[in-house]
């Protein structure tokens, strides 16, 4: 590597917030970035050129494990020091000739996230008393900004279009806006994916006798009101507005702009006094590019993007307490105490199902917990963190021994297996990566 390339690489690795450790195939540290120095309090001058095992026994075992197997490991949870929580990713490194030359571990410090979550989960009385709807938790800056903005729009009665993934709480925010108005005002919903296109117009605007005779001859003649009539002075929440037919979109845009609408088949203008709230997935702009969503309707709305749950992890503890308290009352059971491992798992999971998935997990914990403590075993398989201790559980009996005894046991195992390292590792109850590490550490051929 050229000198300037090395300088750029060092600059990049020192710039990242995660602790990065690079070792050669013998386990000697060849790079230790600033984040690692800060996390462990070990200057690079003190650790570079030394075996990683002299400083971190379990961490070194992981690096030898990935070198021995050739397989990377991801998101392994570890507490290397008291009150320090990290997620470790490690991978072997090969040269252009596919020869193993070492390994890299990257440790993400999640201490602040875990501590904040732990404090909040263990102090359920510190919730925000102003919010009565569980999904509207605003400890995260994004949600606080969103709720503040929506509160201001309530004074203007402007139409709002919520953009966000399924389950992020779009309808909960619509209910929140309704709660800011008169309690007696109607709140109606219309799901554009639940009705065939031919009837969506009639459901929204109502219809006159001519339309009725053609489409529903079994019904009595006369004028029928739609959602816009029934929601007068209140709120009409239109779900999945991206599925609304283009002609209906244009009619709705005109109605919002002119503050009046016409029934299907009718000619008499009807006063438009309700507030329109709508929701769609975050990729609505793609429908505009495909000419399947009206630009006119799109720019009629004030757009509000709702962050996914994975992007508002500060809200997770309070959301959890809301759900657990509610379930505690319904089930007549005390609120369980969540272990630190469980809190770390909840705070670092991606939550693809967002709030719906999170609520289901809270229900599962309450139903499964027979004691007051919740551990990793109570979580669904997809949420469970692999801890570094579990990763190397099989080496526990060996690591508790003195160096002299370890040497003796390894030597005896190799003799009994005629030097077969795989069989010797099984005999000792450890992984082959652990055995290789110990042999290299003690210079055993």
Could you explain the architecture of this structure?
The protein has helices spanning 3-15, 34-40, 44-47, 57-69, 111-121, 141-153, 170-179, 197-205, 209-215, 227-230, 246-258, 284-289, 295-298, 316-331, 340-348, 354-368, 388-391, 396-399, 403-416, 421-428, 432-441, and strands at residues 19-24, 29-32, 73-78, 86-94, 100-109, 160-163, 187-191, 235-239, 260-261, 270-271, 275-280, 302-305, 337-338, 373-374, 386-387. The chain is built from 21 helices and 15 strands. Helix 5 packs parallel to helix 14. By secondary structure, the protein is α/β, with parallel strands linked by helices. Helix content is 44%, strand content 16%. The protein has four domains: 1-109, Beta-Lactamase (2-Layer Sandwich), CATH 3.30.450; 141-306, P-loop containing nucleotide triphosphate hydrolases (Rossmann fold, 3-Layer(aba) Sandwich), CATH 3.40.50; 314-380, Helicase, Ruva Protein, domain 3 (Orthogonal Bundle); 392-445, Arc Repressor Mutant, subunit A (Orthogonal Bundle). Strand 1 and strand 2 form a beta hairpin. Residues 5-57 form the PAS domain. It comes from Fodinisporobacter ferrooxydans. Residues 136-367 form the Sigma-54 factor interaction domain. This is Sigma 54-interacting transcriptional regulator.
State the CATH topology of the largest domain.
Rossmann fold
**Percent range of helical residues:** 40-55%
* Count of DSSP strands: 15
Spatial strand arrangement across the major sheet: 2-1-5-4-3-15
Number of separate helices: 21
Total count of domains: 4
Low-confidence stretches: 127-131, 394-401
What is the level 1 CATH name of the largest domain?
Alpha Beta
Question: How many whole angstroms does the radius of gyration measure?
Answer: 30 Å
Average pLDDT for all residues: 84
- Beta-strand content estimate: 15-25%
Separation of the first and last Cα atoms: 32 Å
> How can the largest sheet be summarized?
6 strands, mixed
CATH architecture of the largest domain: 3-Layer(aba) Sandwich
CATH superfamily of the largest domain: P-loop containing nucleotide triphosphate hydrolases
Class by helix and strand content? alpha/beta
């Amino acid at each position: 590597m050229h000198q300037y390339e090395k300088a750029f690489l060092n600059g990049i690795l020192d710039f990242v917030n995660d602790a990065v450790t690079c070792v050669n195939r013998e386990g000697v540290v060849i790079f230790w970035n600033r984040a690692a120095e800060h996390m462990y309090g070990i200057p690079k001058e003190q650790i570079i050129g030394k075996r990683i095992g002299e400083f971190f026994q379990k961490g070194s075992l992981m690096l030898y494990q990935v070198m021995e197997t050739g397989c990377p490991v991801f998101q392994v949870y570890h507490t290397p020091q008291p009150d320090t929580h990290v997620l470790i990713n490690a991978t072997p490194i090969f040269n252009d000739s596919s020869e193993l030359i070492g390994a890299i571990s990257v440790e993400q410090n999640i201490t602040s996230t875990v501590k904040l979550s732990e404090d909040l989960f263990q102090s359920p009385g510190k919730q925000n008393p102003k919010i009565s709807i569980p999904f509207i938790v605003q400890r995260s800056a994004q949600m606080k900004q969103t709720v503040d903005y929506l509160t201001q729009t309530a004074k203007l009665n402007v139409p709002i279009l919520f953009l966000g993934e399924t389950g992020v709480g779009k309808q909960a925010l619509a209910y929140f806006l309704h709660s800011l108005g008169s309690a007696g005002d109607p709140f109606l919903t219309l799901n554009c994916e639940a009705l065939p296109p031919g009837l969506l117009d009639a459901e929204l605007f109502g219809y006159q006798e001519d339309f009725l005779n053609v489409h529903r001859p079994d019904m009595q003649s006369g004028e029928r009101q739609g959602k816009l009539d029934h929601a007068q002075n209140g709120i009409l929440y239109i779900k999945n507005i991206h599925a609304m037919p283009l002609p209906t979109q244009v009619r709705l845009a005109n109605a919002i702009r002119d503050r009046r609408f016409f029934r299907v088949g009718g000619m008499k203008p009807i006063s438009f006094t309700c507030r329109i709230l709508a929701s769609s997935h975050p990729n609505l702009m793609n429908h505009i590019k495909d000419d399947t969503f009206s630009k006119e309707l799109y720019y009629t709305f004030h757009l509000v993007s709702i962050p996914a749950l994975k992007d508002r992890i500060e809200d997770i503890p309070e959301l959890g307490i809301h759900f657990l308290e509610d379930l505690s009352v319904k089930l007549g059971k005390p609120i369980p105490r969540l272990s630190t491992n469980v809190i770390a798992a909840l705070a670092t999971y991606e939550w693809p199902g967002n709030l719906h998935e999170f609520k289901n997990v809270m229900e599962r914990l309450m139903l499964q917990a027979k004691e007051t403590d919740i551990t990793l075993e109570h979580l669904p398989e997809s949420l469970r963190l692999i801890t570094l201790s579990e990763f190397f559980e099989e080496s526990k009996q060996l690591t508790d021994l003195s160096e002299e005894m370890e040497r003796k046991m390894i030597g005896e195992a190799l003799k009994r297996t005629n030097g077969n390292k795989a069989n010797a590792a099984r005999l000792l109850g450890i992984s082959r990566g652990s055995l290789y590490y110990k042999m290299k550490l003690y210079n055993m051929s």
